[in-house]
Amino acid sequence: MQRLADEIVRSRVERADFLAKNRRDTDRMLKNATRERSQGIREQHFAASQLASSLKEFNRTNQLKVSRTIRENRMQRQTQSSHDSMLRKQEIARNRRSVVRMLDSSNANRLRSARNQEASAKQTISSVKMQVQQIRHQARRLTKAVGDDLQASRRAWARLRAEVAKK
């Protein structure tokens, strides 16, 4: 009987020890899980802030690059337009000098010279008109290209803003 009582006491002690140990292990595992979850959340917040910072830097760099490209294209087209305008003025001046030379060179035979000069002047005028038309056509084309570039840049800015707004 004493042995049975000792066995019961021992069993109760073992059970109490097991429950205490189980409670300690459960508390330790709960603390570890809470600590790991907190650490994971901190790491995710840090990674998210790094990603947001990286995205802002990329957007800033991209905006600068797009602005620079637009500015360079505009400058290039303006330079081309100025160059074409200068060539047109030079050609007109050269044509004028040519007409003046032709008029001055023919004092000897007025009638024939007058006919030749008139034909030459008409040809020069039609040539100048053709060149002026070509230059106007080029100017219209360059103006349209600048407008198209401006529209494209606006669309690019709008897309960039939309992407930034989404994120």
Could you please describe the fold and organization of this structure?
The chain is 96% helix and 0% strand. With 167 residues, it is mainly alpha-helical. Helix 1 packs antiparallel against helix 2. It is rod-shaped. The mean pLDDT is 88.
In short:
The model has no long low-confidence stretch (mean pLDDT 88). This protein has helices spanning 2-105, 110-166.
Largest sheet: none
| Shape, per Cα inertia axes | rod-shaped
Number of DSSP strand runs: 0
Distance between the termini: 77 Å
Specify the helix fraction band: over 70%
Low-confidence stretches: none
Question: Layout of helices and strands, plus pairs?
Answer:
Blueprint: H1 2-105, H2 110-166
List its traits.
96% helix; rod-shaped; 167 residues; mainly alpha
